[in-house]
Specification:
Length: 154
């Protein structure tokens, strides 16, 4: 087996270094905006409560659209049975949004099943249109709603 000469090896190393610099210098234009967490009671257990986090992902690769994300953090509560202090509970979480530039409005509503380890990550594209979006996050149980805003690029 023949070893490569120093010139081809050096040119390969230089090309690799240039590619790394170009990729590292490319601006990251996607944005993630975390909304304040919603403290809520849950149902399907004797006593259950916790917090729900939500956020929006936007970027030029999805013009006029945002990905709305919802995830419950670990819940605390009590339910009679084999695992009394590790109940599984449900709350329907809603992210209601309004585009302040166009007047468009919508909501992402999802039943969130949560337990000792929290919940799965729920996400869905919303066709908000470009502009300034205001959101209200709440559940179908007694809760402290959260309000926030983000911008969607054209």
């Amino acid at each position: 087996m023949r070893m490569p000469t120093s010139l081809p090896a050096a040119s390969l190393l230089a090309a690799s270094g240039i590619a790394t610099v170009l990729v590292a210098a490319a601006p990251a234009r996607a944005a993630t905006v975390e909304f304040p967490q919603v403290t809520s009671l849950y149902h399907d257990a004797m006593v259950c409560g916790g917090t729900i986090r939500s956020w929006a992902d936007t970027g030029p690769q999805w013009p006029g659209r945002a990905i709305i994300n919802i995830q419950a953090l670990p819940v605390t509560g009590f339910d009679p049975g084999e695992y009394s202090f590790a109940p599984q509970c449900v709350a329907v979480a809603t992210v209601a949004w309004r585009n302040m530039d166009t007047g468009a409005a919508g909501e992402y509503r999802v039943p969130v099943l949560a337990g000792f380890y929290g919940s799965e990550h729920y996400a869905l594209f919303q066709n908000t249109g470009p502009g300034h979006i205001i959101v209200t996050v709440y559940t179908d149980m007694p809760n402290i709603p959260a309000h926030s805003a983000f911008d969607v690029p054209a």
